[in-house]
Each structure stands twice: as C-alpha cells, then as structure tokens.
Amino acid sequence: MSKKIEIKKTKFNGIDQNPSLLGFGCMRFPTLTKDKPDIDEVLAQKMIDYAYDHGVTYFDTAYPYHNGLSELFIGKALKKYPRASFNLASKMPSWLIKSKEDAEKYFYEQLGKCQVDYFDYYLCHALSKEQFKPYLLPGVMDFLYQMKKEGKIRHLGFSFHDTPEVLDEIIHTFKWDFVQLQINYLDWEFINAKKMYEIVENYGVPCIVMEPVRGGALANLCDESQQIFKKAKPEKSIASWAIRYAASLPNVLTVLSGMSNMEQTIDNVDTLTDYKPVNDADQKVIDHALAVFLESQTIPCTTCGYCMPCPYGVNIPQNFTVFNQFSISKWKDRFIREYEQTLNDSNAELCVSCGLCLELCPQHIEIPDRMSDIRNLIVDLKNK
C-alpha cells in the first residue's frame, strides 16, 4: 500500500475536515501544445491518480483556469473516486459578477462542470479593493450564504491580492471560514505576506497557501543560492525548501502547488510525506540563500539618502527601489507605470552622469551606470 501523507491534525475554527497538507493546484496542468490551454488529459490524469494514491485529498480549480477547461477536466478526473474521499475547491469569477443572478448562474455552471453536488471549499476569487465590490451588490453574499446553508458550499472563503489594509477591511466585512494568501519565503517581507498572515490568524480562521514556489521562481534561483540549498540537503530539490517553509507555518491548512508534470508531483508528494517542519538551522539556510538571490537580482541600495539631493532632480533611492521591485516581481506594467508616473519628474532620464553621487554612496554603487541601465530597461520593456 502506498504511504500516505501525514495530515496535520490541528483543529481550525469552522473546519470539520482534515484535508491533506499538500493541495493540488489545477492552474498549470500539462498542455498538448505550448501556446494553447488544452490539457494533456492522459498525463494530467496520471498526476492526479499519483497524488490521490499518495494521500492528496485537496484539489483546487477555478473558473478561468486553462480558459475554463480546468473545471471540466477535474470533474472527469475525480469522478472515479468516492466523493467524500476528496476536497474540491473552486472560485467565483469576481470580475464577471454584476448581480445576484450572475452569482447564481456561474455557481451552478461550476457545479455542473465539476460534476459535483457541492464544493468543499468555495472562494471569492482574487479579491482586491476593486474586485471586492461585486460582493457588496444586493443579494450576492446572501446567495453564497444560502448555498452554504443548503450544503452546496461546505466552507466559504476568498483568495486575496492586495495590501494588508484592504485585507483587514474585507475580512471584517463578512463571515469567512478561511482565506487563501500568496505566501513564500520571498514574499514574507517583499509584499508583507507576514502581516497578512497575522491578520488572518488573528481573525481566527486558517490560511490556505497559494504560490509557495512563486510560480516556479523559487525553484530556479541563481546558481549561488541553489548551491547553498544543495550543500545543506543534497538529496532535496530546490522547490522542496519553499514548500516546507509554507507548510511549517502553524495556521496553514493546505499548501497548494500548481503541478505541471509528473516530476513535480512526485517531488511535492515526497516533500510533504512524513515531512519535518523548517527548524532554526533550515531557516538560516533559507535566509542565506534568499540574501544571495536578492543581492544577485537587485541594486544594493539601502535608501540611506546620502546621495541626495541630486542637483539634477533624480530621486536616486526611489529609482533603485522601483527597479528592485521589478527585478524580483517581474511586474512589467507596474514598473513602467511607477517609473513614468510616480517618478515622472525625478526618474533616471534626468541623470547626466555628473558623478557627484559616487563619492557619497557608502555602498559604492556605480550610480550613473545603473541609471543608464534603468533607462535602457524601460526602453526595452516598452518595445516588447
């Protein structure tokens, strides 16, 4: 018999199930061709079967995944298993909800596509300050609460992409059973995931983790960082460190991983089978590898301000901050917007390479050269 994942038995408020600590994210199934959403159903079924056979019981899909094909596939893939043996999660497409009638329409459509009578976990998808507005429309949340009362939703929550302040507002507006957050050892500080995790914990509901490997970025670090991990645990994958980090947080119910091939599925299952939480020694390894990665990807500006004021009006620390955020996040549109709008009268375009700042920088950054790099990057990104 296959060895089962050790399920965390912590009792969470309002949760009457113990889903597997590893959740199967259904957003990145293998596809038949690189540029189309059509799922390679033969391979994806083998991945689902392997995960299920090894104790994975939580499967997370959503209305837009694979252009709507994910819900259809997961409905077929799980049909052969007893309904009570797995937990299925899906999400209401917030951006399509203009009325209570829309909420009803999409919810019942999703039940049909997934071939189930109820969702174990149902989420208001990708909430932000703007995306929360549909749930303030008359009757929308009343409908979701009615579905919960009828047993068509067992647990109601939301996934979130915004600031801690917005999260605090949303979580206290309605009654929720859980919240899904982007948490990983990079975003713990980078997007203040720590603060958001604490808000959810203080509210008294469990957290489901999405993007523990940050879309694969934390499985493909710079060579120096990867060597740090490999020296500490040669037999473990780089991705496994990120999965374990998220799973070690005490208020985490499930860690979702969007697996796209069998190798990832086997590795993730292995990582959380009889797994041991990250200890102090492990955390030091993670901190060291992350510091090296950040140094390799960013300009080592501490925003001390010794280089200011620039006689030509360049806000040197802020330019470096905006650049560093892009280097880590790769959010192209945000980078261009902040460079052109937030820094519109103080960006790198104003640098004339006078060199006055070079003598003032305690980090010995080649500031004029880096300003030139930023200007060139903006041009390159806008031409793509």
Would you give an account of this structure?
This protein is 42% helix and 12% strand. With 384 residues, the protein is α/β, with parallel strands linked by helices. Strands 1-2-3-4-5-6-7-8 form an 8-stranded parallel beta barrel, surrounded by 4 helices. The model is unreliable at 1-10 (pLDDT under 50).
Q: How would you summarize what this structure contains?
A:
With 384 residues, the protein is of the alpha/beta class. It is 42% helix and 12% strand.
Question: What keyword list fits this structure?
Answer:
single chain; disordered N terminus; 2 domains; TIM Barrel; eight-stranded parallel beta barrel; globular; 384 residues; alpha/beta; 42% helix; 14 helices
Mean pLDDT: 92
Q: What is the count of helical runs?
A: 14
Derived from helix and strand composition plus strand pairing, the structural class reads alpha/beta
Strand order of the biggest β-sheet: 1-2-3-4-5-6-7-8
Rounded Rg:
23 Å
Give the number of DSSP strands. Answer: 8
CATH class of the largest domain: Alpha Beta
Percent helix: 40-55%
Low-confidence stretches: 1-10
Task: Indicate how many domains the architecture comprises.
Answer: 2
What's the multimeric state?
A: single chain
Strand content: 5-15%
Chain-wise SSE layout:
Blueprint (H helix, E strand, L loop, with lengths): L21 E4 L15 H13 L4 E3 L8 H9 L9 E6 L7 H15 L4 E9 L12 H10 L3 E8 L3 H8 L6 E5 L4 H4 L2 H11 L3 E4 L12 H10 L5 H10 L4 E6 L4 H10 L8 H18 L18 H14 L2 H11 L24 H17 L1
Parallel strand pairs: 1-2, 1-8, 2-3, 3-4, 4-5, 5-6, 6-7, 7-8
